[in-house]
Batch of 3 targets.
Target 1
Amino acid sequence: MPAVAVLLPAEEWTARAAAHDARVERWTAPHRERRRRGQTHPVLDFLFTYYSEAPNRLRRWHPGPGVGLAPSPAGPAPHAAWRWYATDGDGTVGLDVAAYLAERADTVRFVRDLLAATASRPAATGCFGLHEWAMVYRAGERRHAVPLRLGQEGTDAVVEAAQIRCTHYDAFRFFTPDAVGLNRLRPTRETQLALEQPGCLHATMDLYKWAYKLSPAVPGELLADCFALAVEVRELDMRASPYDLRDRGYVPVLVETAEGKAEYVAAQRGFAVRGAELRARLIEVCDSLLG
């Protein structure tokens, strides 16, 4: 059994686990119901498809490294049966950090290096969310079955009149072939450490990805915080996109106008501040794991 710095009594960890489940059910329950009905959602499905964590795994609460879960009257915590957990002779369950690192150390180091590199840079806020526009520029088909707010010609005109400044590879790789040459940068997987910056909406959403990639070492509260922020960021991402989502209840951010650009940048800066706090907490988890 690994060393435990903090021992949680059963009444505390069961309450925290229940609170976590109730919190994320706000998003996972509607997603499961849409999936049961064969329905899609152009905004929120992204959080369960592009981000591949299964809803049932998102609902699992984890205590994080160095935290032991005391047994309840019913026996050890259910974590005892989960991967990378160990149980001592008294029934206390905790993350087996050594076993976890034996398989996941390279991932922990990569995530820590990427998060630290991103945190070291100032937030760039001059992209105005035009990555989504570049993904449909001169496109014969669209990624979502949703009409374009300005039509194809109007959308193309916005892209051609702008300076595209996307720093995020996983957004850039979805640009249409005609839009690739319009971007001022050429992000690649190899340059990710050098280019990712905290003003990028996708880098902020990706905090959720890195949190679940580190699972089960990330405390459930931190994972849920990252997911909740990703939901808000995704909504802005699509409100500022060329898609017309008003019938879904999303008021557009008109980034083709000066007022819309200002609205987008203000929200982007707010997300960068909130993302910085979550990024620091994730770095702390990595440092705790790596000693």
Target 2
Amino acid sequence: MKKYKVYIADDHTLFRKAMVNLLRSFDRVVEVKDAENGKELLTLIKYEEPDVAIVDLQMPIMDGAETCEQIIRRNPNVKIIILTMTMHDSAKYILHMMELGVHAFLLKNTEPDELEKAIYAVVEKDFYHNDLVAAVLRKNVTEKRSGQRPMFRQAELTEREKEILALICRELTIREIGQRLSLSENTVRNHRVNIMEKVGVNNTVGLVKFAYEAGIVN
């Protein structure tokens, strides 16, 4: 079973060191490094890429949003998990960073089991879909429909494509979707590519966001 390297950036020393110890206790985390701000994290990544970077949203010197933009541009293979204090304070930033391509969002009071699950999900499934993300996306859809935001793009998907997209949003793998729908993995993979082309996105995060906006997931 594959094991992963995880880096964490957070300016609160006690919290960061406690997180390092927690991460090292996970069965499939083989290496952990920590940084006290985004600039230090980028330096670590420059010398050796992790599988996952856990980034605090609010940090001095270089905050979480700017740090994520830099990682996505320079190291697109690194999966990013954002840590935030509250959904209410961070909703607009979460939406913006979803559009950038951040892979998961967790509250700082998240249970250890969920953190571990999120780490594995972002590497193996490209996205972690939890209640925090769902709340932000539902709020986004409500604002679009009330005219507070521009309406979402339209895309004509077949019933099969909608079915596959809904299962992607439930974090099923290509293999699991194929087994569920009695399709080959190649067929599911081709459907996924076609959906992304129709919707105009290039990652799973974009697919999930579209699914909410189009009413495929609610």
Target 3
Amino acid sequence: MIGHEEAWREWRRAMAGERMHHAWLLAGRRGVGKASFALAAARQLVATGNAQTEQHPDIHMISYAPKDDKEERKRAEGKPFELARSIRIAQIRAMQSRLSTRPTLGDRRAIIIDPADDLERNAANALLKSLEEPPAGTYFLLVAHSPARLLPTIRSRCRVLRFPTVSDMEMDNLLQDLSPAADEATRAAAIAAAAGSPGAAREFVDMELGSVAQAMRDILDRGDPDFRLRGTLAGLIGARPDRDRIRAVLELARSVVAQRLEANMADPRRIIDTHSELVRLTGEQPTYNFDAGLLAMEIGTLLANAAKASERADG
């Protein structure tokens, strides 16, 4: 993965040392490859001879579970199912019960929590107890897109690995390799919206968000006195977008607004306020059950209110 060189150097130095830290916080923007690093690092950690397999019994992954019993039954039947919007205390309790036994194949086990910043409060408090008194040979890798959302007491017990964003040139080369059907204009829009995150850029292309970005820019450029452009935006977002699409649309809106913030604006306050509101909505997205139509209208209204702020001070 691009930009992981320093993280690998730190990890391998730690593995070669006498006392490796038991808890690691993998911090960086969503889409820069933290989860891929965590899995690869965990495989190095627990590898015993030829036992470094895809499904290693001493690597435990904790992420979003099915939303409820009904969705759990769908998963068991091999049907599409809906995920919960946070990581719950029951998942942490189940992990802790495993820690009372020895690792299966060697003397080390790895616990990956992705994303740790979506732990419910009770789940975070339960995890803290394991971080305070970790069983011998147990190592935690916490993937975090927004580390500030973690409990300070959790952050203080972790060694931090930071994952940088990627340059525009590297992103363009990557998109040409992974999404060869995307034209130059689409790649440029994806790179601008992704703000250094290869995963976000690929998502932009795969979800065909170019038209959504243009609709957002149209509202910022022209306002929307008759609500027609907001209706267009809602249609492009879709009547029933899944959680990933809603998140991508919110992050795209933030990027579109941030690109309008210029030093010579007549009055940047509306743009700043709009960006702050979009940050708030993005923070609520993992746990709120947004109505897609209402969310699209709210995003459109924020952009329309910011439209006058896009005027330049020099005319």
